[in-house]
TrEMBL record:
InterPro entries, sorted: Chondroitin_lyas (IPR008929), Hepar_II_III_C (IPR012480), Hepar_II_III_N (IPR031680)
Heparin-sulfate lyase N-terminal domain mapped to chain residues: 140-262
Organism: Advenella incenata
Subcellular location: Periplasm
GO molecular function: lyase activity
Keywords: Lyase, Periplasm, Signal
Name of the molecule in the record: Heparinase II/III-like protein
GO cellular component: periplasmic space
Domain of life: Bacteria
Lineage of producing organism: Bacteria, Pseudomonadati, Pseudomonadota, Betaproteobacteria, Burkholderiales
Amino acid sequence: MEVRLINNDLVLDAIVDNPISNDGDEYAFYLMLHNEKVNEFWYSSHRHIQFPLPDKAGQYHVLCFHRNVKRSEKSRANSNRISVTPAIRWKIPQAVAIGRYKQLIYFRRVIFGDYESQKRLGYIPRVGAAPIPLLVPMNYGPRNDRNIEFALSSWKFLAPIWKVYFSSKKYKYLKELYTFFLDWNQSLEISNGKNSFAWYDMAVGTRAMHLALFLYVLNEEKIELSTRDSRILGDIINRHIEYLENEKNLKYNNHGVWQILGLRLLYWSRNETSQEKIDFCEYQLSKLIDLNFTEENVSSENSPFYHKYTADLICQIPTQLFAQTQARITAIQDKKDEISAWLTSPSGYFYLIGDSDDKGMLLKSKISCDFVQDDICYISKAYLGSGYAIVRTHPDTPTDDNAALIFHATSASYSHAHSDKLSFVFIHKGIELISDSGKYSYENDKWRKYFVSDRAHNTVGFTNKVFMPTDTNLGDSHIFECNFDNGTYYLSGETKKKDVLFEHKRILSFKPDEYLNIVDHIIHKCEGVGDIEVRLHFGIDISLQEINSRLVALFDNKIIASIEPDSRLLQYEIYSGSENPILGWSSRAYKKKKPINALVMRFAPDLTEIQTKIHLKASRFFNDNLFDDRASTLGRI
């Protein structure tokens, strides 16, 4: 076993050249100054690790320990010796950290994670992604995955280093952080603008928070950098401030929260006294909240998941730094969990609307019933000004009796929007009967285009025309009814497309355990677009079959519903996992997709009203075994 120690100016690289490698090999490294251990890296499978450049000049070497528990093997070796003259110089007046960090809560969004796990495994930018070794120089981009490139450019991997620093108060972790600052700065010169996320809105805001926290720590610990390093750090910070002070660079969605907070924290850490600069941050945050939240305090980002994410983010803003927006933040705080709970299905997961996934919030039990049917309580909530209407069973309902219907037409922004106005998700007997397709990814490829298009949603469209989110003007879609009468719910809404005359009004009538009736009113003068299509996407565990000229939906080989198209139906097709054309897919995790059944019903282009009825009491009339001859009664509900 041969061990090499290399000085690359920012860190010391320790590399094991072992010609014989076996499963279970592990290595530990001691960085030695003469006979004194100054740093260590405990046993892991890594044969290449890095130590922050030490403060003291001198002759350094690495003592490497090798073990293999499975093979009962142990060995050790010394590396070459190298002279180190540190390029990073710190003036630390005390050996032990003295900072009290009374305002550390300002930075909680960038302090989290498990340092030891990240050091051992590498940085994992998202679930399912391959770990990335944190070795400098880092490849911040370009990469073949935009999501990962964004995460690296946002310095998200620094969060565990901050956490271990504040738990240990060891200065070596500050040096590790600063090494990555310098490495990123050098990468800009090397990549020459090839990293498209280097100056991407949210990435800049997140980095600004890290830089502000670093300044805060330097002030608390009374640490002075050398003249050279003060100049480098100051230049990095000034470029971030210059970018964030340019109003043209600011985004008025959840990304903008990071930008405005990052700028305000940089001002705070630098003891900025200019009232004009502080007022700029106050004004921009107030503007962002007004644009990003409706009067009902619902996020305008077209997504249940992003309502919770953005509301949580807003409510973690230190109001001490934004006194003028404190009242509005408090109003969002008071309603955010209740709204998130209504936007969560009885399964406990957010409805797949817009760019949504992940677990939601449970609805609290203290809710009055609209009515009770067969001992089941039904409740409803309308956020008409925000584009949502929700009907469901009470949260205390047994799982197998759960029902829910969410009808939506959000229209205040294009952020995380899909072309899904007047679409809906429907749950019957605890089963997601009518589903939505999910987000899939943020990559600008054919799959992303499909998942955000009208073809991936329970909408009305055309055979030869695909609508995208920006084909609808903001403010041109509405939900304007969510009422009930005599045990039946009535929900209605309308939307229209820009640049073409296409107006769509939809009325849903839902009688629990009986039917869901869909009436679509269409006015259009679109030419060359083919037939009108009414599309329904079924849950991941639902299959469709035609039995005795009737369409039925099955779960676990049992009929749970019958679909009755309008009598003027020209033809229908069922797509499942089709790639040409792309139809019949659902995504419930990033970049993962599964086939589902998508029903496409085609009608003459001159029809102005189309009715589709989903009958829900099929189980009364059918034996669970599909091969029972009584299945011939299908459709005679």
